[in-house]
Design a protein that fits this description.
Blueprint (H helix, E strand, L loop, with lengths): L7 H21 L3 H25 L4 H6 L1 H24 L21 H11 L2 H22 L11 H5 L3 H4 L12
Length: 182
């Protein structure tokens, strides 16, 4: 429903519903922390941001519908190729005999799912975790650099100029005659 809805606001609302469905699946699997994290991060930030952006856009749907038939043959060819690839991959998939058995150790009863998630992230996947943090840092710096503009008419403080000032240059003694200033 997210991609098949014609109204973008409805699409974003269906996306929020899909996030809540995924969070419900995490709760059923016993990963309450991941469910809460999914709802807070995706629904609380990303989906609400998408909703406000879509609501602020002035989209002319009549112009969008006019060009739809022009790209329909190309889209059908791409869809057929993807469907053929999916059929080839799915048809060649063979399950081995030991696919149902796991060699994972039994988790400790005292360990919560938050502790287990942190343990896995900071031991087995530490390099990937650090790389993800680095990618987010680069994306944040890139967004700041792309949106930063020098504004004219803004007074800026120059520390070096302020420190170079002398007392003789800053204070002016003026002799005002008595009862002369009004």
């Amino acid at each position: 429903m997210v991609i098949s809805s014609r109204n973008p606001v409805h699409s974003v609302l269906f996306l929020i519903l899909a996030f809540f469905n995924a969070a419900g699946l995490f709760v059923l699997l016993g990963a309450e922390f991941l469910a809460m994290l999914l709802v807070v991060v995706y629904v609380g930030a990303v989906a609400v941001l998408f909703l406000f952006v879509v609501m602020m856009l002035d989209i002319n749907f009549a112009e969008l519908r006019e060009g739809f038939l022009q790209y329909l043959p190309v889209g059908a060819v791409v869809g057929a190729v993807l469907l053929a690839e999916l059929a080839l991959v799915g048809g060649s998939w063979v399950l081995s005999e030991g696919a149902g058995k796991t060699s994972l150790p039994v988790p400790d009863e005292k360990m919560t799912n938050t502790h287990a998630l942190g343990h896995v992230l900071y031991t087995d996947y530490i390099y990937l975790f650090q790389a993800a943090g680095l990618v987010l840092l680069v994306a944040m710096i890139g967004a700041i650099v792309l949106t930063h503009r020098r504004r004219t008419g803004v007074h800026r403080q120059r520390i070096a100029t302020q420190l170079d000032r002398r007392r003789e240059d800053t204070i002016e003694v003026v002799k005002v005659p008595a009862r002369g200033g009004r």
